[in-house]
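ingest -> validate -> predict -> emit
validate: passed (alphabet ok, no gaps, 471 aa)
predict: started
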Amino acid sequence: MISYAIYVVDDEETIREGVTMALETDYQVKAFSSAEAAIEAMNNNPPDLVLLDIGLPGMDGIEALGRIIELYPDILTIMITAYEDINTVISAMKLGAHDYVVKPIHMDALEVTIRNALETVRLRKEVQLLQEKYLKENLPCFIGESNAIQDVMAFVGMVAKSPDTPILILGETGTGKELIASAIHYRSPNFKGPLVTVNCGAIPNDLIESELFGYERGAFSGASASGKKGLVEQAANGTLFLDEVGDLSMAAQAKLLRFLEDGEYYRLGGGKKLRIQTRVVSATNKDLESMIEKGDFRRDLYYRLAVIKVEVPSLNNRRDDIVPIARHFLVEFGRKHGKTFSGLSPQAEDALKKFHWEGNVRELRNVIERGVLVGKGPELTLQDLGIEYLKGETHSEQSLQGVGPSKPGAEIAFPPIPPTGIDFSSVQESLERYYIAEALRLAGGNESKAAQLLNINHHTFRYRRKKLQIK
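emit:
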């Protein structure tokens, strides 16, 4: 049930008490004898509506109205005047007062005026409650206690309020750019619409136009007889998230730019101009400005995409978040694999905080899952993690070991099968995911070298990477 808070600001005690008694059954009411006291109280507990006397001592009602609108533009104000002074009422309405009542106050008329005013507040609160529900049900967990990530999330909450302003998310691989895109969507007015994610690097250049904008039947050989909606169309009234936007070909960039300029496009093979409303959020771990200088990315497209830029700090620049994130993954993978850990050992926590995370949160996730798979408990230990941190070494000298013995001749420590059994396919997938991600890290992102490290051919490696959605 939606509740409403009302401030009554009047220097006459009989009016304050009378109005409070009449309203307190249906509303949360606080009374003040001065505007100064009411405005100070708003710092901690802003109301939905203020009944504000014009003829107050000290700061009068007109001045107080201006301050309230400046500081709290969402608060509605109903002015109280001792006589129907048209000039004063007009001044108040021009400043932004919602309505006014004249003394002596007739409570029945006042209650009608309040109900009418709060109708606009009700609609806003219903949207807010619904949005909070969507956030709770849909927003993936983004854990962060450091000032760096708290500043980012505060900025995201502010810029998300626009329904259509393009936003570019920048950050190293594995920093959580997709989570930021999700946060933008579910904190925006488009939150009830779809969030459509496009991995630009995974779509072949000759298919990008048909994938983004769709096609009509018969547009090309092998086209569906009924045609196909593009990803842009699927994101109508929602958010289109273009991940790895730096991987788009120049031809695809030109087509995307045309859509961003006016929101209009054609399906492939179609002659009908289509138009939709959606917010475009893009992300990349590449230096787009350097790509522009090299002629690999369009400057005009960059300016369209980067109306607002959100830079996600690397995990190495927010080390206060490492252990809380690791604990979260420990619980997540403990449930997944049917194992319980009391926590991380002090040595494990210390190593995690000191390790250089080239793959950021994604790499940390893989390390914790590996630890859960091989660990026996009750704590997750440094040996379980496979991290070696030698005092005095540089980051480049630190090493991450795979599942297996840390020393020649040591036995591989795999987890026992619990009485309830295990999800064998899930365990296989987790190990495969870990090794592919680790091979990529060691190979600096080069797929051919990563495949050689795993002794599989390049095509098999690429197929498994795509299937497991490893970036």
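The chain has three domains: 5-132, 147-313, 316-468.
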